Amino acid sequence: MEANLVKVTAVVYLAATASFFYFVLRKDTAAKLPSLVLLVGFVFHTLALVARFMNEGFAAVAFMGEALLFKSWLMVGVYSLVQLKYRLSVLGCIIAPLALLMTLAALAFGSDAGEVPPGLKTFWLPLHVTLAFLGNAVFALAFGVSLIYLLQERYLKHKKITALMKRFPSLESLDRLNYQLLIWGFPLMTLGILTGSLWAGIHWGHYWSWEPRQISSGIAWIFYGAILHGRITAGLRGKKAALLTMFGFCVVLGYFFLGDAMFPGRHGGSFE
Amino acid sequence: MQKDIVIVGLNHRSAPIEVRESVAVENSYVREALSRLRELPSIHEGVILSTCNRVEVVATASDHLVAFTSIKNFLGEPKAHRVPGPLEEQHVYTYQGSDAVRHIFRVAASLDSMVVGEPQILGQLKQYYDAARQEGTVGTILHRLFHRSFSVAKRVRTETGIGSGAVSVSSVAVDLARRIFDRFDDKTVMLIGAGKMGDLMARHLISQGVKSLMVTNRTFDRAVELAEKIHGSPIRFEDFPRYLKIADLVIGCASAPEVLIDAATVERVLRERKQKAMFFIDIGDRRNFDSRINNLDNVYLYNIDDLTSVAQDNLQERASEAEKAEEIVLEEVQGFVRWIGSLEQVPTITALRQRFDDIRRKEIDKSLGGGLKDLSEPQRAALEDMTSAMINKLLHAPISQLKRNPKDDDDDATLYVAALKRLFDLEDK
């Protein structure tokens, strides 16, 4: 049931990806269809998550497959919210395929990865994971926005005005959106780290254990903090800010996929 | 009576500007010209279109050759207070029937414009059509023709990219500015120099709603003068570098022999304005801005050649879209010609019946005056009934064939109407 729902979600996301590209290439960015298709996918996605949580009896978001499913759900949700205010169908061309890949990966990892010790099944788990993943989702969007910014900037610098470029929002609004996403993403990430740390302190007795995930998210946190600081005080903006934002997300993403596999700690599914 | 659509006109390709000007119909004279047009031999309906790129008379006529000559003469007539130039045969084009329909559709869709895809022509067409309608020189056919042409224009605009992409230097600049900046109402423009292009571009930006405009020139008086004209504030030439930090768009049109703004200056200015993006537009005869400015982050420099080449690219794109538009036009012309054909059906049918009935009448009278003069009243009535039944039966098949929805078969309806007219000699009815 649950796996089938995930499959349906993936198929709808595939359709959403296709329609985003179709309409952007047809120079029709006002079309509402792609966003609607994505929203349909989101509904199935929600149902899949609900089914999963009911099966497990608690918010199951600890292992790779379920984490991916939850993370992509948050990402699509945040994108849909942003889409309400900014008409960013071009961004859909990045978000929809990303959501598709993540749900496919979730299917590949499967849902029976392991068992979370009963002692850890407290409200801390969903709280920590939701905050941390929400931060990630916002940064994923910032990544997409930065990518579009860099493309638009490149076209303008090289004086090649293509038809595709006409579909992009202006540099100014992309940069502003990027900044706003950072303003939202950074506190979420901070809270994610804080709740994780508190939870560890309560459960294991020490707040910080130099676990690989902690180190990497610490690095990412400092990195994003520096970008935010630069933006507020030093006039960091435009191309440099976009490049740094993209790099920051690569740190987050790289660790999420590779780090846990190489250094299995608590985040990788071994709870000593 | 068969009516044909005819067009006699001159445009930017067929005639030089002096000739076009000499035959142009001034706005104030349009009504009078329309009523003169109506008086011409063989003309039934008429619309006059007169813009700087074209003068056209669209009319319906019973004889297109007569109409061509009389409209040509009409165009060559001395106007209100203007001596017409020589109106030579090669300056004028004429269209008739489906070619005329195609021409007017192409004009409306801006396929015949000097700048293909420019949107003004449709408005002008509507305006001249309205004038003719008010003057009462528009009938069923031209009414339908013009309304059809408006919707063809709309269809072309929505289904092809013919109107997309800026094709003039200053609209390209505005277009680029829109890709850099999200809004103009918080942006400041600095215009350096009093060149004509700069003036034009500054006006264009003002019409887009920029917040404020600074004008500077080596001769301060010129700056004051220009600033007054375009609602800017004048700045002394030696002061302008100090004001650069509040300028988001900088237009250089000074044609100064030396570089006025170098990259180091812009770098410093950018630091002062916390890297907020700047757009430099260099459109003087000589380069006023250091080309290395474009290498700096958050700064974009376009010179006149860059802008022209973007405009050229857009024009090419329009040209390829125009091919799609031509197909739409052809499709619509066929539809319209079909409608014209169906218009002639009813009168043809009536004429055909009339013709048959006349013959019947004549023959009955002849017979009743001759060999059948002894017939009784009831017999005469029976003869009457029999002959009219015969004619009805004879005509039934061809008429019902003709009345079938003309849209079913493309040209058949028009063809049959023409054949019937010819075969039964209905023309001079």
What keywords describe this structure?
heterodimer; A: 272 residues; mainly alpha; Four Helix Bundle (Hemerythrin (Met), subunit A); 8 helices; 76% helix; 0% strand; B: 429 residues; alpha/beta; Beta Polymerase, domain 2; Rossmann fold; 3 domains; four-stranded antiparallel sheet; 13% strand; elongated
Structure overview:
The complex is a heterodimer of chains A (about 270) and B (about 425). Chain A is built from 8 helices and no strands. Chain A has helices at about 1-25, 35-55, 65-85, 90-110, 125-160, 170-205, 210-235, 240-260. The longest helix of chain B is centred in the C-terminal third of the chain and has 66 residues, at about 305-370. In chain B, the strands form 2 sheets. Chain B has a 6-stranded parallel β-sheet. Chain B has about 425 residues and is of the alpha/beta class. In chain B, α5 (about 120-135) packs antiparallel against α6 and α12 (about 305-370) packs parallel to α14 (about 410-425). Chains A and B meet through α5, α6 and α8 of A and α7 and α12 of B.
